Amino acid sequence: MLRTLNRLSLEDFILEMGSRPVDRLTHDQMLDLVHRLDLSGDLIDSRTHFVDDAYARNLVCRTLSFELIVMCWRPGQESTIHDHAGSLSAITVHRGSLTSRIFVPGDGVRVGAGPVVLDHADTFLPGQGWTGVDRTGIHQLANTSADDLVTVHCYSPPLKALNVYRLDTPDVDVLPLRYTVADDLAA
User: Fold this and answer.
1) Helices 10-18 + 27-36 axis angle, to 10
2) Is the model's pTM score more than 0.85?
3) Is the CB of residue 70 less than 8 Å from the CB of residue 151?
4) Which domains does the chain have, with CATH numbers?
5) Is the pLDDT of residue 79 over 80?
6) Are 44 and 154 in contact (CB under 8 A)?
7) Sheet containing 98-105: which strands, arranged edge to edge?
8) Which of helix, strand or coil describes residue 184?
9) Is the pLDDT of residue 92 over 80?
10) For residues 175 and 114, what is the distance between their CA atoms, to the nearest angstrom?
11) Across the strands, what pairs with 105?
């Protein structure tokens, strides 16, 4: 798909995302908009906050149609294997190296096996643009490098919870989400 070169300020991005019905927004349309989004490094840096026990989710902005989050990952930190419960996602690397593992439904034949199996893994670096998964995509994100990782994520509609998968059981759990900085400041 050919991407247009018209850059969007955060304010224009908010207006564009709000002008489309969330349930009719396609992944390609969202990727086109985030590719055009002009986020300053200073804004991302102002939301760059790490925690030691898990990756950190730091809110940039949230509207009824989308949310924009800076996630900070120490070496070895990773997400669960999850889908976004019907939300579209787009991800770009601001600093570091991101490992993205894509999963597909399992064959359901093996006893004790989980509902998903690894399909493939990719590595993304700064400047490589945006990637992500569609409404039904299942993935796991990880910092497999020795350096800190900072990523920017856009979800439409905003995430309320994740459906979490494991490789050793057919159970699927629901994980409610929180924002690290906002929650920590409120505590």
Assistant:
1) 160
2) yes
3) yes
4) 10-186 (2.60.120.10)
5) yes
6) no
7) 116-124, 98-105, 138-142, 81-83, 161-165, 172-176
8) helix
9) yes
10) 17
11) 116
DSSP 93-120: EEES-EEEEEEEE--S-STT--SEEEEE
Q: Over range 145-156, report the average pLDDT.
A: 98
Task: Name the token pair of 73.
Answer: 């990952």
Which amino acid, one-letter code, is at 78? E
Confidence of residue 1 (pLDDT cuts 50, 70, 90): very low
What's residue 187's pLDDT? 47
Read off the pLDDT of residues 111-127 as tens digits, 9 standing for 90 and up.
556 789 999 999 999 99
Give the alpha-carbon dihedral of 14, 80, 84, 74, to 10 degrees.
10
Rounded CA gap, 115 and 120, in Å?
16
